[in-house]
Design a protein that fits this description.
The protein is of the alpha+beta class and about 160 residues long. It folds into 2 domains: about 60 residues, no CATH class; about 80 residues, no CATH class. A 5-stranded antiparallel sheet has the order 1-2-3-4-5, covered by helices on one side. The longest helix has 23 residues. The two termini are about 25 Å apart. About 5% of the residues have low confidence.
């Protein structure tokens, strides 16, 4: 359930997750709480505690998956993955590099995949970033980019 929620957060497709939860998630809870023959009934307080604990764990893990940087720190390879995919061959596979002004320098393939374009990147404490192209445009590369580092970017590094 948690990986599905993280993918839906990354892609911004909450509707899919919501309808999946309504159909399969609630059925799972009903099946988990079903009593066996001859078993006494559950106390409502225990059921409420289990539901609140499950919801809290779901929320905490979902937030961690969507914004892991406050816990894991901002990694140059995860930032490179978020901005431009894999580390580019011309960038020696090192990921983004910290510039003297404190901004990151990250490369990304241009829109035609014929070369790379350098971006100056600033990030906040949550791992969200704003990038401005430095130098030539390449083949239709956007002047500005923005996004956030997610757990997926740390895992594919």
């Amino acid at each position: 359930m948690i990986p599905a929620a993280v993918v839906c957060v990354i892609r911004g497709q909450w509707t899919y997750f919501w309808f999946g939860w309504l159909t399969l998630g609630i059925l799972w809870y009903i099946g988990a709480l079903a009593r066996k023959p001859g078993q006494g009934s559950y106390e409502p307080r225990q059921v409420a505690i289990a539901l609140v604990a499950s919801a809290a764990a779901f929320l905490a893990l979902g937030l961690f998956g969507a914004r892991p940087s406050p816990v894991l720190g901002l990694d140059r390879h995860a930032l490179q993955s978020s901005i431009g995919g894999e580390s580019l061959p011309g960038f020696s596979g090192r990921g983004c590099e910290r510039g003297p002004d404190g901004a990151w320098r990250c490369a990304r393939h241009d829109e035609g995949f014929s070369g790379s374009v350098l971006y100056a990147v600033r990030s906040n404490g949550l791992g969200c970033w704003h990038a401005v192209r430095v130098g030539s445009a390449g083949e239709g590369s956007p002047r500005r980019l923005e996004g956030c580092v997610t757990l997926f970017n740390f895992l594919i590094d």
